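ligand=1-benzyl-1H-imidazole
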Amino acid sequence: MPSRKVNLAIQAAVSAALVAGGLIYGTPPGCKDRKVLGEGFSPSRVKELVEAQVAFGPRVPGTSAHQKTKDWISAQIQELGPIAEVQEFTANYGFEVPGGQVDRRPMKAWNIQASLFPEKKIRVLLAAHWDTRFAADKDKKDYRSPGPGALDGASGVAFLLELGRALLAMKTPPELGVDLLFLDAEDQGGSAMSGLTPWCLGSQAWAKRFRDLGMPVRYRYGILFDMVGAKDAQYPREVYSLTYGPATLAKIWAVSRELGYAKYFPNADAMAVTDDHVAINQIAGIAMVDLIDLRPTQVSGETVSGWDFPPYHHTHGDVPDLLDLKTIQALGETVMTVILRDR
Ligand code: 1BN
Ligand code: ZN
């Protein structure tokens, strides 16, 4: 055979082997095609896990629903196999009392962590908050009592648990280890000047502990899930995420396009959200991005020039019925693919 023909034959054989092995399409070894990744992740289980949390009532710190949810998350982790590490910390809450004064009360709070594939040295940190805001203060009718927090709180927890289950069930496990981190006391914040409770206390406590322990684990990157899986959800590039984790965002955006999920990850830079990833970036030095549901407010043609929180945010309308299995599937499959491809 002339050498050009030999080269072409070799090229064709190599291409066929790469496609069969999933390397051209980036699927991990052992998976025939990208569908296998999607099939491992169950959107309906995510919905069930959200409903289970909402059934406890609002998971506001200091309530029995909060206590029950802490035990429920630990039990869910243990059902998957890993040990649930419950990290207690003291959160200083500020309450408004009659006369316009602020009463300070230290309260116990709990971050919960699970280490999947603990023998792996290089790891990915997946995080979400599990507490519910003390009041649905954006609600037009009843702004004093807490809302159900189906998206804001429960959805991120459900995503972590289902991603954990699906990853542990993979015939070929990921090359990187995966930690699931359930953060408390994210959503109790008041205005910065008020002296009321700060936001994101759980991530601040976790990040300080991580730093003070001498950064005992090496995380390649982190992904925070906040308000995930609603119908019409969009996850534009949040500003702190762009600053600290541009490479992770680029990976997620590229995979979403490859899998046909571009509409959930618009090619747009949105506002900055002081969410749990900020302390984890700034104090713990882990490049964490925030996948958070934000909606366009100003659209002219293809250009979006303003973003805001979704309409259910901090209202009584934050209910499980808002969840959309297709959105959950898109996000789950995208994130699983990103993690399973990493080396
Ligand atoms: C996201 C969902 N957040 C709260 N619930 C983060 C946030 C922090 C939003 C500070 C606004 C201000
Ligand atoms: Zn919130």
